[in-house]
Amino acid sequence: MANSVQTLSEFDRRLVAGWAAMCAERVLWVFETESPRDSRPRAAIARARAFARGELDTASGIRQRFGGGSSAGDTKSPAAAAAARAAGQASAVCHMGAHALGAAAYAVNAASLAAPHRSEVAADEIRWQLAQMAADVRAALRSLPPVGENRSGPLGRGLLACGQIGMIISQL
Questions:
Q1: Across the chain, which distance is largest between two alpha carbons, in Å?
Q2: Using N-to-C axis directions, what is the helix angle for 99-114 and 78-92, rounded to 10°?
Q3: Where are the domains of the chain?
Q4: Which of 46, 158, 163, 164 could link 154 by a cystine bridge, Cβ 3.0 to 4.6 Å?
Q5: pTM of the prediction?
């Protein structure tokens, strides 16, 4: 496994994968409304749940994640793309725990974009996500470095550290 503190132990990755899948699944309808025949995000969430239950190992999860391609690029709306990215981030937790925060942040982004005239949606979604976070999940996520502090993973210089997604992760 990578030497990044953003990786988390396998035990902690399994803990946070279930929460990440829950966050992504909550906005899956946004993607499926636009692309009802595209099952890739639903399959990604199922893989995250299987990994959380110990039914999928890290290597298999990584292979399956990259086997189906990205559904986000096949969407027309930014909200559907964000929902697809939430599912993709959830499935990526098997190799790096920091992706759980990416799943949650993209889910918040999808919910906000799906309801552009309701300014409270992002805050409501963050509150819901935090309420779903068990104490052991919270402890695992708190062991991650703050956004932008550790450059050897997605919370460093990548997409999860930039713009609105980075701001959402900082709130989580």
A1: 43
A2: 160
A3: 10-145
A4: 158
A5: 0.88
